[in-house]
Structure formats: C-alpha cells, structure tokens
Amino acid sequence: MIRVPPSPILYQSFWCEENIWQLVQHPAAAADDRLVLAITGAEAQVACWKQKAGNDIDPVLWDYHVVLATRGDAWQVWDLDSRLGFPVAAQLWMETTFPFQERVPRRFRPRFAAIPAEDYLRRFGSDRSHMRDLHGKWQQPPPPWTAIDGQGLSLADVIQQARQGFDLAALRERLR
Predict the structure, then answer these.
(1) Residue 56 — very low, low, confident or very high, per pLDDT cuts 50/70/90?
(2) CA distance between the termini of the chain
(3) What span, in angstroms and rounded, lies between the C-alpha atoms of 110 and 162?
C-alpha cells in the first residue's frame, strides 16, 4: 500500500492570523470543536514565552497573536510560532506560554477572544496593510499565498475583540 504524505501546513513567520486561517482548512486540524484564539494585552502588547521569535528565557512581546484550539478527546492548541511544537495539550500550552502571571505587569497579561473556526474562515480578511511601514515597504516578508478576502472581520476587529475579551483564568476554564 502506498501512503500519501499529508500536505504541509502553510506557515509564514510573523503572519499568525493568516497561518491560522490556512490551518483551519487543513485536515490535520479537523476536530469536533475548534476555536480561533486571538490574544493581545490590555493596552497594546502581550508577553508570550517559548516563541520561535525569541529565546528560551525571555518573553516575546507580540502586539497580537493568533492560535487554534481544537478538541477531540481533550483540548489542544496549535501555536505555529511556539517552541513547544503543535498541537500540544491546552493546559500545557497555557502554563508554558503564560507562566507566572502574578509577576507579569498587567499591561502585558493576555486577553483572549474565542472565534468559532468556521466563522473565522468565512469572515476574516486582511489587506496586509498592518505589515507595511510608512513608505509602503514590508516590515516582514508576506506569505506566498494571496491576501485573504473575508466578509467583515478585519484584523483590527479581531484584536479589539481580544482586548475586550476574557483573561487567562477564564480561558483555562473554557479549555478544561
């Protein structure tokens, strides 16, 4: 019997919102329940540990981050930018990505929005303008796929939902 290898998971550094949009369509991420988790800080940045863009000790300060949570038997998180690999158990991801919250300044503590994956797939769109500098040059190389043309859910909307969303304790409860 010939086994066909699974298609690769599409990924472009610094484009988590588009990476997750692509991942939602991938057969490897199929599950009974799926939530796109948008993450930001209360003011402008969120501290995330164990990220590929950083080192093993210090956090990366993202202005936002987007991951996918899936549930078959238990909740798992697909953080394509994590040094943990993916998917990993949701509780492990939360403990490792957001450790010792009592010592993290409030402005860098995570706030979350949970968007049903099918809604995100159908509605999310981005013109990629957030990744251009004042002169129109890319701050980071764009993905090789075409920009996502969605129906009424912009990146700014996603970030605003997260900023007004729930905290880490509420996410722990939700992903039990």
Answers:
(1) confident
(2) 39
(3) 9
The predicted model scores a pTM of 0.94
CA 62 to chain centre: 11
Residues 120-132: tens digit of each pLDDT: 999 999 999 999 9
Q: With contact defined as beta carbons under 8 Å apart, do 167 and 101 qualify? A: no
Q: Which residues are catalytic?
A: 16, 65, 79
In order of start, what are the domains of the chain with their CATH numbers?
A: 16-174 (3.10.620.10)
